[in-house]
Structure formats: structure tokens, C-alpha cells
Design brief:
The chain is α+β, with helices and mostly antiparallel strands and about 110 residues long. Helix content is about 15%, strand content about 30%. The strands form two sheets. The protein has a five-stranded antiparallel sheet with strand order 1-4-5-6-7. A hairpin with a 5-residue loop joins β6 and β7. The chain is globular, with a radius of gyration of 14 Å. The protein starts with a strand and ends in an 8-residue tail after the last strand.
Length: about 110
């Protein structure tokens, strides 16, 4: 399922020249909507479900809903990034959830 922007949480990465989700999207389909100042997926059918935008969002404003064939209606998977790990929260249709913490490799790059 394509990424979904939660408008109430998205601030368009204020202070940056372009939103992080727009910078990282391999399909170039995450864009800042000039009318709202918020990110949006301009071509949901072209989304690879790579979750790069979801993981890069500093406000947790982007989610990917899990296809109902796999997770049931209403299931979603939301990551929370830290410097050393990603905490994946899987919410099931009945409202219960499970969290899995995975370490991440983070190289330092010159800016």
C-alpha cells in the first residue's frame, strides 16, 4: 500500500529546502504541496512500499498501511527512528500491537 501522510503531523520539514521524504523517495513521488505546505504522495500507484519516506519523517507523519490480505483491514506499520535503532510498531485490526526494535547501521557523511 502506498505511503499516507497524516496532515496534522506534517509540517513540510520547515526550515529545509525540501522535505526529507521528497529527498529520499526513489520514485520521486513524494512532493511538497505548495497549497498546504505539507508532503503528499503524488502517484500512489507508483509507490514501491520501500518505506524510505516513512523512516525519514522526523514527525512520524507518514505511515504505510499493510495490505488487508496480509494484515487485515486497519493494520499498519509505523517506525520510530533513533540514532541507533528503529522501533517498528505493528498495529493489528483489533487495536492490539507489537513492537520490534532493530539496530540500524548509520554511517557518518560529510555535509
Amino acid at each position: 500500500m502506498p505511503s499516507l501522510v497524516i496532515a496534522e503531523k506534517c509540517d513540510g520539514c520547515k526550515g529545509k529546502t525540501e522535505p526529507l521524504c521528497e529527498q529520499i523517495c526513489p520514485m520521486d513521488i513524494m512532493k511538497l504541496d505548495p497549497a498546504t505546505g505539507k508532503a503528499r504522495n503524488i502517484a500512489p500507484r507508483d509507490c514501491w512500499d520501500c518505506m524510505a519516506c516513512v523512516k525519514s519523517c522526523p514527525n512520524q507523519a507518514i505511515i504505510t498501511k499493510i495490505p488487508y490480505q496480509i494484515g487485515g483491514y486497519g493494520a499498519k506499520l509505523v517506525p520510530l527512528m533513533s540514532e541507533t535503532s528503529i522501533i517498528w510498531t505493528l498495529t493489528f485490526p483489533d487495536g492490539s500491537f507489537r513492537q520490534v526494535t532493530m539496530p540500524i547501521r548509520k554511517e557518518k557523511f560529510e555535509e
